Amino acid sequence: MRTNYIQYGSPQFHVLSDKQIEELHSVALHILETTGATFECQQAISILGDAGADVSNPSRVKIPSYLVEQALRTTPKAITLYTREGEPAIVLNGTTGPHFGGSPDDIDYLDPYTGKRRECYVEDMADMARLIDALPNMEWSFTAASHPNLPAAIADKVALLQLILNTSKPVICEPTDVSSLRDMIDLCSMVAGGEEQLRRKPFFASSSEPVTPLIQGRDAMEKSLLCAEKGIPNVVYSMPMAGATAPATFAGCLAVTIAEVLSHLVVLQLKNPGTPIIFGAIPSIMDMRTTIFSYGAPEMSLMVGALTDVSHYYKLPMFGTAGITDTNVMDMQAAGEVTYQILISALTGADLVHDLGALYCVVSPEFHVFENEIIDMAKVLIGGIEINDESLAVDIIERLGPRANYLSEKHTLKHFRKFWVPKIFDRSSREKGNIEHCGELLNKKTIEILRTHKPKPLSEGLFREIKNMERIWLDRVGLKEYPKREEIK
Prior knowledge:
Blueprint: H1 18-35, E1 38-39, H2 42-51, H3 65-74, E2 79-82, E3 88-92, E4 99-102, E5 108-110, E6 117-119, H4 122-134, E7 140-143, H5 152-166, E8 171-173, H6 178-192, H7 195-200, E9 204-208, E10 215-216, H8 218-230, E11 234-238, E12 241-242, H9 250-271, E13 277-281, E14 284-285, H10 298-313, E15 318-321, H11 332-348, E16 352-356, E17 358-359, E18 362-363, H12 365-382, H13 389-392, H14 394-400, H15 410-415, H16 438-452, H17 460-476
Parallel strand pairs: 1-10, 4-7, 4-16, 5-18, 7-8, 8-9, 9-11, 11-13, 12-14, 13-15, 15-16
Antiparallel strand pairs: 2-3, 5-6, 17-18
Helix pairs in contact: 1-9, 2-9, 3-9, 4-5, 5-6, 5-17, 8-9, 10-11, 11-12, 12-16
């Protein structure tokens, strides 16, 4: 832990020492040179072969260390994400994080009006986008588009469209395949005013997923290569499961993960040097009792924190994870797991932190509002303590002396407004009468936002163009309209 000297600005926590980072980097290079990685994309294999990699066996493509070091040199060290309107929103440079992002969709939806879990509909995605737009600590969105009531061919694009219609904040998507990604880029180019404008001021980024252990699948690689061609920021992240798809030791799991991201990175920088890449991974453990990939495991946050140290050693932005739980109900387990994750993310400083507000396979508006409050609390910690003549208040302490009361002092009037004020946590427990507690306040606040918040509208002409594109997508899959949820009373 760094002590809070003014030059640091805020407390920070590092999981790894510099020597440990260098050792992990060295082992990752060794893995790529001697073990190799499987590449299922012929274009990627050709690019690597032309650059000097050993591609004689596509199941064991071996990448020389010098290609990795060259790729790290050409990868941008800072990326700016913009609003839908082209205003700077988030600067990713390893020093300004964390920037927390909400989860607007999932398989199921926890309805704040009924308290019941049900399928997630397009109208719910729109509601979630407006909610995220309203929450100040949710600075962007990540959509993975898992929707059983929509055809897979359009589900990811529809999720992106709802975000564009209902929030100005940046969005990162997980396209199903390269065809979907092309449609997404066309849509976002329309909003930005052209493909070149989107390249210069991206409000949209894509994501690609190596498969642990050490597999670069065809779909993931094709998506990444298209992003490299178009200059679209791209998150490269895998999901190693310690004890199942990666070694059970944290160091071994991290080494495999780093090798996966670096092997992907090399191809993209060879394709187009300067391609903007966001380093990422969601490493966790396999719970040996249930065999699940555990999102709530403390080991996940520990390893994400370690990879944040590694990505910042490379001077690359980091895609982190927090705010997700292994339970699918809002209970004490959920609150405990996500509070731990948010605090670790705040202290370790991943640039983009995704999965906020997600129960296990369930998206919850109320959980987003709850986590917005937890992030607000964490910001008090990472805000640090300012020490100067004004804040030390030595003259006031001396003037008032022992047994003083500071309540009526001008100094108090000047500074007390900086105290953190809860919005959904109750501090009136000693009062008598009808008191609204956290759960009631949370529900009331959530429904108020859903009913009243209106995002910045698009121009009429742009709105018509987007709806025409939506009509084309629906026609492709033989739908006249989206499946409808039951009317909210």
